[in-house]
């Protein structure tokens, strides 16, 4: 098996190759032509081999690079191509609200799977997106990676910033054997929310070390407001953890101003990247190879 890391996921791809028993690892050559068209080339002998192609798709260019790399791997004669998309961009556009709109997540699933024998991703916005693939598709979880990290920290309580994350924080709490609850959230606009404690809080946060658990941190507005609320209620230590750290604009700095530590997995390169999903992705890939 060969592992190839696209420009958006080179470090994670190398970690996955190590988890797969130091599988051969390569980085494709990429450049831009004078008219700004993208050029990619994969190296090594891939004919008859299983190839793992790892590329997060945070930007449109990342998607284009992934599609070109898939075609390059097929042209190189790979036996099977397993496409790993740790962060699947457009996954939050998973439904149509107004006439004339595309279902963007579905459209991109169709393109990503064209030259893939199977697709692996991590913590989609909705697992419903997996049903948009016609090829075998699997979703790894970032929860174990974050739990492995938090297990080494002093921690009393886990909190989800909204009820949409209840399943996530409950599973994390089971792994760490810690109590948990979810805040009530009312969204004001795309960057502002209003948070409150649930009507029946199962335990006090006063004097506690609390970790806020989320799947994606983008603008950071929800995490900042949640941290302010927990501090007001007496929490003495607050950290924030997520699978996908987008940290748009000055989000990371704004969060660091109100919490002690910020942790994310390595699905995206960012200043909080401290936990790796490589072991969890490798487990799925190993099952695919054997299957």
Verbal overview:
This protein has eight helices and 16 strands. With 291 residues, it is α/β, with parallel strands linked by helices. The protein folds into two domains: 2-141 and 276-290, 3-Layer(aba) Sandwich (Rossmann fold), CATH 3.40.50; 144-266, 3-Layer(aba) Sandwich (Rossmann fold). The strands form four sheets. The protein has a six-stranded parallel beta sheet with strand order 2-1-5-6-7-8, with helices on both faces. A six-stranded parallel beta sheet has the order 10-9-13-14-15-16, sandwiched between helices. Helix 1 packs across helix 8. The two termini are 14 Å apart.
Note poorly predicted spans: none
CATH class assignment of the largest domain: Alpha Beta
CATH fold description of the largest domain: Rossmann fold
Supply the helix-strand structural class: alpha/beta
| SSE succession | EHEEEEHEHEEHEHEEEEHEHEEH
Give the rounded overall mean pLDDT: 94
β-strand percent reads 25-35%
What is the helical fraction, as a range of percent?
25-40%
Question: Order of strands across the widest beta sheet?
Answer: 2-1-5-6-7-8
Can you tell me the overall shape?
Answer: globular
Largest sheet: 6 strands, parallel
- Count the domains: 2
- Strand elements, count: 16
- State the end-to-end CA separation: 14 Å
Report the radius of gyration as a whole number of Å.
20 Å
Number of helical segments with 4 or more residues: 8
